[in-house]
Amino acid sequence: MAARKKNADQEASVENKLKSLYKLQSNLSEIDRIKTLRGELPLEVADLDDEIAGLGTRINNFELELKQLDENTKLQKGKIETSKMKIEKYNKQLENVRNSKEYDHLSKEIEFETLEIELSEKHIREYAQRSTFIKEQIAAANGLLKDKTSDLEHKKKELDDIVSETKAQEEKIRERAKRTESTIEPRLLTAFKRIRKNARNGLGVVPIQRGACGGCFNKIPPQKQMDIKLGKKIIVCEYCGRIMIDPEMAGI
Question: Which domains does the chain have, with CATH numbers?
Answer without folding.
Answer: 1-35+185-252 (no CATH), 39-182 (1.10.287)
